[in-house]
Specification:
The complex is a heterodimer.
Chain A (H helix, E strand, L loop, with lengths): L1 H34 L16 H8 L1 H34 L5 H9 L6 H15 L5 H25 L4 H8 L4 H30 L2 H6 L6 H11 L4 H35 L1
Chain B lengths: L1 H4 L2 H27 L16 H8 L3 H32 L3 H10 L6 H12 L4 H10 L10 H25 L3 H9 L4 H29 L3 H5 L8 H9 L5 H25 L2 H6 L2
The chains are: A mainly alpha, B mainly alpha.
Chain lengths: 270, 283
């Protein structure tokens, strides 16, 4: 009886899921459509298409500046967060120590915190400490939010990690550093890689924290927001599409690199 | 103390803990300090006062709180209904496909929030995609869709959907199928199984999803600004203008403190009732 009802519910759930996926991608498709539209003001159905806005974006020096700022912030955030989060994840999930439960909660708090308010609190913090805000302070601000997220991602990998492998390496005469390099890091590498990809892309696309922490510098999402509020220009969807393109390429490249890396690792072990 | 410090777990926790003390706890304590300073002052070395709190309660500032809570409750309830079937499918039906669906849903999270919200502006705009297609196909002219309360709710639902969905998936996959089969064999109806077995066992995931989406939408800024125009002022708007245009740090701080205490007590309540090792590590 129950199985019959399941069979009736199953296609409905599949259709609903497909609808939700469509819903999630609708605005992204809209942005790409608008970036190829020739008119200065977006109108649908699009009457004539053009790649003019992309040509303009590629030669524009201010666009290059924006991309360079966003990229520098994201790459620094990635490196610093992953190092910090790697150790954080070991403390989160690997070792048993007094205070661990409290540590887990402190790590999670910034994720559960409204980002705009965090950005404003940091703005206040910087100005009281006398730190001039620039893209460097934006790195700091992004990390307050991204270190916990990456810690969580690596922790998931650490939970499935068998500590006796480390002990075995030590028993067989490996130093602590060797164990870390030859045993712990390779086993945790899937978590570390997905953590880095998340760190990079979340920083690359972040808006609420950047808004209050970059000072005179500007990242792409901030520029886009300023233009959205002050009036439409075709550069907004164009740069938006370029940002999405950048994210897709990052995802794709890291996926391929990861697959190759795994294949090599397997061959080494075989 | 020294023995405690020499544990490997403690040493591994030090960098992240120190960083969050400087980058998170410090700023919050300072915001708390400023919230009791006299309005429109910029120093912490003054006699504490409740003036900011009183002016928030007596002026119409509480309205933005009411709006924020109302819109967040609405978004969370709709999200729960929207996400539950999808989460059920991902936890119980899709099998190996669930990983692919997960990836498809995670990818938009990696695109800047305001680009995606701008996509909805293009979709809902007059002569935009929705209006334009309806005019083209059926000759129907829509009333303005953008800059309304429903468009803000749409934005909230859109942005926070994954934050409801994934906790629900974790919650629902903690419900063992054998238990449901046993109940069914013993004659329980589908509704009874849902109410007596599925809901209670999936409750940690449901609670995390609801709390997370509620807190995030309570503090949201971009949705009401980009999709709402100036229709509704949400609490984060008020906080932002107090800190920036009005240059009234103490008032902005007090508004933040109220928001933090409100959402913080929810988080505290949640953390007391769930075991993180079990949910994240599946232990």
């Amino acid at each position: 009886m129950q199985n019959e009802k399941r069979n009736f519910a199953k296609p409905l759930i599949v259709v609903w899921t497909a609808f939700i996926v469509l819903f999630l991608y609708t605005p992204m498709v809209s942005v790409v459509l608008a970036s190829f539209s020739k008119k200065r003001y977006f109108q649908f159905p699009v009457e004539s298409w053009t790649t003019r806005w992309y040509e303009k974006a590629f030669v524009s020096l201010s666009v290059r500046d924006l991309l360079a700022t966003s990229f520098s912030v994201a790459i620094l955030v990635t490196i610093l967060s992953v190092v910090m989060a790697f150790f954080g994840a070991l403390a989160f999930a690997r070792y048993d120590w007094k205070g661990r439960k409290l540590f887990q909660k402190i790590i999670l708090l910034p994720i559960f915190f409204p980002q705009a308010v965090l950005g404003l609190a940091l703005l206040l913090w910087f100005s009281v400490l006398g730190v001039t805000t620039s893209w460097v302070t934006a790195v700091f601000a992004h990390m307050v939010w991204i270190v916990p997220i990456v810690t969580l991602i690596i922790s998931i990998q650490v939970y499935s990690f068998d500590p006796s492998l480390e002990e075995a390496a030590i028993d067989m005469g490996a130093t602590r550093l060797q164990t870390l390099w030859e045993v712990t890091l390779p086993i945790l590498s899937p978590g570390i890689i997905s953590g880095s990809v998340f760190a990079f892309l979340l920083s690359w696309g972040n808006f609420p924290l950047s808004l209050f922490s970059t000072g005179a510098d500007q990242t792409v999402p901030e520029w886009l927001y300023a233009k959205m509020v002050s009036g439409y220009t075709p550069m907004v969807p164009t740069l938006g599409s370029l940002m999405m393109g950048g994210a897709t390429i990052t995802l794709f490249v890291s996926y391929v690199a990861y697959t190759l890396f795994r294949a090599r690792q397997k061959r080494r072990l075989a | 103390m020294i023995r405690w410090l020499s544990q490997p777990g403690v040493r591994a926790a030090i960098p992240a803990t120190m960083f969050l003390l400087i980058g998170f706890i410090g700023p919050l304590l300072m915001v708390l300090g400023y919230s009791f300073m006299p309005p429109r002052t910029f120093s912490l070395a003054q006699v504490p006062t409740f003036a900011n709190f009183i002016s928030i309660v007596t002026d119409s500032y509480y309205l933005s709180f009411v709006w924020s809570i109302f819109l967040s409750v609405l978004a969370v309830s709709l999200l729960l209904v929207i996400c539950y079937p999808v989460a059920y499918g991902m936890a119980k039906i899709f099998g190996p496909w669930a990983n692919i669906v997960t990836m498809i849903i995670v990818v938009p999270l990696l695109v800047s929030e305001n680009i995606r919200l701008f996509g909805w502006v293009l979709f809902l705009l007059k002569n935009g995609i929705a209006d334009g297609s309806l005019q083209y196909l059926f000759g129907i002219k829509l009333p303005s869709l953008l800059y309304t309360v429903p468009s803000i709710v749409l934005g909230l639902i859109y942005v926070y959907l994954p934050f409801m969905l994934f906790p629900l998936v974790i919650g629902l996959s903690m419900v063992p199928d054998t238990l449901k089969e046993a109940a069914s064999d013993l004659g329980a109806s589908r509704f009874q199984i849902f109410r007596e077995i599925e809901l209670p066992l999936a409750m940690p995931g449901i609670m995390i999803g609801c709390m997370l989406t509620f807190i995030l939408s309570l503090g949201s800024l971009a949705e009401s600004k980009i999709l709402g125009g100036q229709t509704v002022i949400m609490i984060a708007d008020d906080i932002e203008s107090a800190f920036t245009f009005a240059q009234n740090w103490p008032k902005g701080s007090m508004l933040s403190v109220i928001l933090i205490i409100f959402s913080g007590s929810l988080v505290f309540f949640l953390f007391r009732r769930i075991d993180l090792d079990r949910i994240i590590g599946g232990r």
